[in-house]
Every structure is written in C-alpha cells, then in structure tokens.
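Re: folding output
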Amino acid sequence: MSLAPGKIKHMKALANAAGVIAAAAMDQRGSLRKSIASAKGIDTKQVTDEMMSEFKVAVSRVLTPHASAILLDPEWGLPAAKARSSNAGLLLAYELSGYDNTQPGRLPDLLPHYSVKRIVDAGADAVKILIYYTPFEDEKINDIKHAFIERIGAECETYEIPFFLEFVGYDPQGGDEKGLEFAKRKPDVVKGSMREFSKPQYKVDVLKVEVPINANYVEGSSVYKGQKAYSRAEALAHFREAADIATKPFIYLSAGVSNAQFVESLNMAGEAGTDYSGVLCGRATWKEGIPVYAKQGVKALEDWLSTEGVKNIEAVNAAIHGAKPWYTKAGLAAQGTSAQS
C-alpha cells in the first residue's frame, strides 16, 4: 500500500532536514498535574487549568526552536501549539490520559470530544495514541486493544494524517516495571509489541517505542546501578533484534527516565547500528523544571528551560546523530516520493 500524499506532507513537517524526527513531548496530563501538586504541596484538585496550560506554553515556546516537532494534548495544549516555533510540526494526543482501572488489562479510551477530523481541524500533523501493552496479557484483553488500534488506523487513513502509536509495557501481575525482574523481561515485551503493531491491518505509520532494555541494569553503562540484567553486548543485541522486527519507521520515547539514562540508551542504539528514525522526548528534558515552576513561577521556569532544558534537549539531539530518515524504513525511495511500503 502506498503512503498517501497527505501523510507524506505531514511527515515532512514533523521531521528535520535529514528526515529524522527530533520531537519534544508535552502531552502529559494526569502525571503533570500530580507532579505540580506534589511540588507545590497542594491537592491535585488545586492545580488549575491555567497552571497546566501555562507550563505547557513555556515548554513549547522555549524548546521547540530546538525540536522538529512537539507532541501536545488538545485538553490543555492548544495554546502551547500556537506558541511553538514555526519550524516545529505538531502531534496531538487522541487518548484519554491514564487507563481504565475499574477492570484488568489497562484498557484505553479516547477523548470524548475529539475525533481524527477534529484533530486535523486543530492543525495537527499527526495523531498519537498511547496504549499499555504486553504480548503476555490475556488474549481477550489484547484482542480488545487490537480492535481499538484498527479503528484509529482506519480513521487516520481516511483523513491522510500520520498515525503514531506509542505502546508502553507493563507487568500483568502487577510487578515493578522499574525493577530487575521486569528489566529481564522487557526485551521480549518490546519486541513482541513491535512485531504485533508492524502488521498492516493497524495502518500505523510510526511506532513510538521504548528502548528494549533498561540502561540502569546494563553492566558497565554510565547509569549502571550495580544489578545486572544484561551485559553491554547482550543489550546491543536486543537493540538490533527489535529494530529488525519493525517493518515501520520507529522512534524512541523517553518513558519518564532521566536525561542521563535516555542519552545513554540512545548511545547504545547508535552503537548497535539500529535504523531508528529519531525520538519523542518528554520528561527527560523538562521534568526537573516542575519544582522550579511550582515554587518560583513561570518566569523562573522559562529561565530554567532556556538553560538546563535546552542543554537537555541538545544532549538528546547530539545522541541521535546516527538516526536514519523515516522515509527509508517506510519504503520510500526518497523523501517526497510515494512508493510501496
């Protein structure tokens, strides 16, 4: 199936001149509200819509001159979309923040007042969906998620807008996803998810994936904590195997880790020679600015972003020098030409 001209046009808007996606992410909602409340020492209900929007606008205004695109949410992020630099494309989230915790399986849902058409009308260059996914979940639960993604893929195809699918792994048994035991299983979770959503029925254009290892448990890594899940050689092999599984362009997400851990992970991706097409990096860039904002206000946040935030995003930009153009993995001979993918 050829990539529609509209999708190609939007993909160009999201990538830099080299065809690499170097995007910032500021679509956090529930987690941002909790973090601001915690830093201010107030209840989450006291975090106002104005605070949420103000934080997002500051991040967008200061960081997008250093990014090829920014991911925002339609709930509080539209003012930030208007504040972004003219060089930056726009992705908008379509899912409700969090997941349904009234039943097992971390089932997703969509924003009730949005559709792909409305996201297009809001000026977006891509639709982003986040789901919690593991190949090791109950088959009936995963079948619900598969149908959910098929619907969105068809909707995006109708409006010729790229579909970015983000899947975040978890332990169906409720284990610690940051712990050693999950780190050992993480390569299989990531690879299995990449295999599933590379399938054509989902009509996904870009896979937004976790790195297939946890760098804190890679022996000898710059962020090694002393507990080993893999040697560096084993970690690099996991990067290569995951990349080989993907038949769609894929980019790495920071998944809330520190900037140092994300940069180390990207360095390993480069060392492994993976053909990833860039990053969508959120909290690793700006999360340390939350207490600054909470205690000193938006001007102090902007000052922090202008120094530390820019330093963080430039460190990520430097680490993705080995990324490959999205159109190569998409099966396009060259940017701007349509080919069978």
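--- second protein (sequence, then structure) ---
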Amino acid sequence: MADRPRRLRSRPQLRNLVRESRLDAASLLAPLFVVPGRLRREPIESLPGQARLSPDLVLQEARRLTELGVGGVVLFGVPDAKDDLGRGAADPAGPVPEALRLLRSSDLPLVLVADVCLCEYTIHGHCGILNGVEVDNDLSLPALADVGLAYAQAGADLVAPSAMMDGQVAAIRSRLDDSGLVQTGIMAYACKHASAFYAPFRDAADSTPAFGDRRSYQMDPANAREAMREMALDQAEGADVLMVKPALTSLDLLARARMRFDLPLAAYQVSGELAMLEAASERGWLERRPAALETLLAIRRAGADIIITYLAAEVASWLSEEQR
C-alpha cells in the first residue's frame, strides 16, 4: 500500500510539522466589559471567569493580556444610566472612551477595538433609535456615526459597528473621514445572526430588549446567500475587516467568505458557545482545554484571520506552554 497518510501522524513532531491550521495568540481579541468608576470589578455569573471592569482595571487586564501575547481587546460599555436614545454611547466621558484613552496613553502593543452599538445605552435595549415600537434604520445612522467618532477620537484602532443597520459602515466611514480620522479602521459585524447564543452576553452587558426581539435587523441564520450580500455591502461601504457571528454556527459562511473576499475575516466565539463548553466541562462531559482548542481550530480552519474569544488569555497561556 503506497498511500499511507498515517505515516505523518506517528509522532508529535511529525504531526506538528504538517499541521495545516494553527492558533496564534496575536490573532486573538479578548472582549472586555467596561463600567464607570474606579476599582470596580463585577463578576459575571453567566460568563465564568469574566467580569465587568472599570477603566483602571481594564488597563490592568490589558497589561496581563499583553504579557500573554494576546493581539488586542474589544471594549463593550455598560453604563450606569440609560435613556431612550442611547446618548451615553457617544459621551466622550463614558466608560469606553475613558478606557480607550488610558490604554492608548499606556502605549501597550494591543489593537484597540470598540464595539459601536446603542443597545447597552438605551432603556429599551434595542440597537437603534425607535420610531414607535420599530427600530428606525435611517434615524439610527447619525447616532451610530457619533459613537464611532467618539471612540475613534479616544484612541480606537478599529471601531466595530454591531447594530446591523443598513448603511452603518458608510455612515461611520464618512463621519470619520470628515473628521480627519482616515486611519481609524472599521471592523464590520457584517454577518450577525439573530442567534440563541447571545443570552450570557446580554446579561453581561445589560442589553436584553425590553420588548420584542432583534429579528427585524439581525440576520436569519438560515440565509447563506444573504450573508454574502451583507458582507459585500459592508466591503463596498468601506469596511476594513468583515466579521461573522456566532462563529461555530457560521463555519460554512466563513469558508464561503474566505473564497470570495480578500479582506481580513474575523469570527466571534460568542457567549453561548462558551457557556456550552463551560457547562459540559463542569459536568465532566467534555475535557475543557482540548475541547476549547478544537473549537478555535475549527474557526481558524474555516477561514478566520481574527478570533474574538473570552478564552483569549487562557488560550494564549496554553499556546505558550506548548512552545516551551
């Protein structure tokens, strides 16, 4: 028998030599939830190991991530006060801009990404501005552009619009360019499904809708062709990075996107994906570390250049151990 693939599996060194997909700590982004104040740490029950942090503790965590070789952070604001228009999202004194300024002044070698949405800042929990009980797409665009501008001015390398409003990338790109911030990039949540896997995040960010759901603006998970259309639109509007979310339920879309688009691709391993892993490992049904690494390798293999994961610090530590 001439064809024996097992020849290259016989020893760990051989398997490592021919491995096609590899994880790299520098390609991981760690989500962080930012609250106002100082020395404020609020553990998140639905996301084991995660906590809401005040900007000073965000800086402390960022230093730890830097030491581990993690590539960057994605910041989500969790304000103390909300209103019907989500005005606090664009407040230069808000938790995310404050954290960005601290991180930028620290000169840490991290990519700074700021999520651009209104859901955490509105009393109704929806991602845009309401007209009656409906989210008004075009009314929301200037507000999202204001948020993107505030974060860019505070020092974000990339602003990441996640509201799934049509035209949001173009609105933000125009506002940034008109303000002289042509170097600030946009990581677009281009394919974001109306998913059942966001529940722990909504608890962490206090962003559960007060009524209804988000199916009128987030994507139907059943639609692959529409996903490609959304990505093409965001690319045309000026996105620098395209994101797929959730990651594990969108591996086919990542693979399609890798074949079609030349832009860097990001995938978000969302809170529900982590919750499943944590629950199964806690019950002894899965071995946590190899299962976590296998899921991330699948995301990488499907085509993701960047992986957003709550496991970023742990994975970076594991990878460092393997290299010793």
